Amino acid sequence: MQRNLRKPDDNEPTTPKGAAKTNRGRHVHVALCALAYAASGALQPTLVDWLRSNGATGVAMLPMLANTLAVACVAPLRELLLSEKRSYIDRQQWSWVSYIKSWRLKGKLLRRVAFVAFLDFLANVLVMIGLLFVGAGVYAVLFSSGVAFAALFSTVNGKRYSLRQWCGVALATLGMALNGLASVEDALDAGHGALGRFELGAGVILGGTALHSLSLVCAESVSAGEELTSFRLATYVGGVEASVLLAHNVVLLLARGADKLYLKHILKHQGDPTTVFIVYVALWFADLCHALAHYALLAGAGAVALTLSRGVQMLFVVGIAELAFCGDDARACLTPVKFASVASVAFGILLYASKPKRPKRELLPAQ
């Protein structure tokens, strides 16, 4: 009698121990992606702040162009990294020509990808404009509040969350709101004009954050099927947005010239064009790391867990401010309110990620 021997699939846990090992590996992967997402996300607004203070931002929207170019590189870069793991035969059969041909979209999938690209582009425009109004600190706080929007939109889209997870979302959102109190007080102290500017920038960022969370939920829904991975979706979205911004810059260059469009503002702020270029390269690399972690988290953990990673980003911002700037600026120091916000965010994230303990089954006596 022949036995039906089937080779077990690599992703199929054959024992409870194997299943536990697979789950641990997945959790470690998600945790590393969340840390990379938070660290690069904390660096991005800091670099944009430096560029803004040196006159390297403006109507050309170069920070957003750097971000969209980085997002457009996600799938090709991942393909290059995966090519090193392929067998010799697979490498011989694979070609860039066939890879590019496989990118053609049709019908309903094309419309859904176009809708996600539109939402993401509009959200990024609003967030970038708001960032230029209020600066990196307020931006990081307000943009982190997208976890509440993502949870609401995901619920509308059909997902269900436990009471424990909703409490985690509420605590994380509350902590982010508490952390923003200092920024509101600073705006009040600076006068009515500054407060009006703050309100405008904050409102624009909140609107962009809501749209960004909606685009994440839509992107998770689009990439849930096997026909389109989240990394390919990233390149579609980034490619469309980068094309629009490149065309925008070409029109401005033809109308104003490079000196008036770029160099004039940099020199007016006593900036060095070479240093500005280097910082833009650093910003592009930070954007690339952020995008890779972003879409890996979207595929592995979903939109809500991805937005919760912005809470980890807030912890990075508060920690960096305490360690690096507290001596020069008292507003950067850790206050009781900031400590409460950090504790609330950290506990909220842990509460969302934790699983309720299952009751142990009673062992029946052997018969």
UniProtKB/TrEMBL annotation:
Keywords, in A-Z order: Membrane, Transmembrane, Transmembrane helix
User: What GO cellular component is one of the record's annotations?
Assistant: membrane
Q: Does the keyword Transmembrane helix apply?
A: yes
Q: Which residues form a coiled coil?
A: none
Q: Where in the sequence does UniProt note compositional bias of the Basic and acidic residues kind?
A: 1-10
Superkingdom of the source? Eukaryota
Among SUPFAM superfamilies, the record links this protein to: Multidrug resistance efflux transporter EmrE (SSF103481)
Transmembrane ranges, per UniProt, are 27-47, 59-77, 113-133, 139-156, 163-182, 233-255, 276-297, 303-325, 337-354
Which residues does the annotated region (Disordered) include? Answer: 1-23
Indicate what this protein is called per its UniProt record: Uncharacterized protein
Q: Which source organism does the UniProt entry give?
A: Pelagomonas calceolata
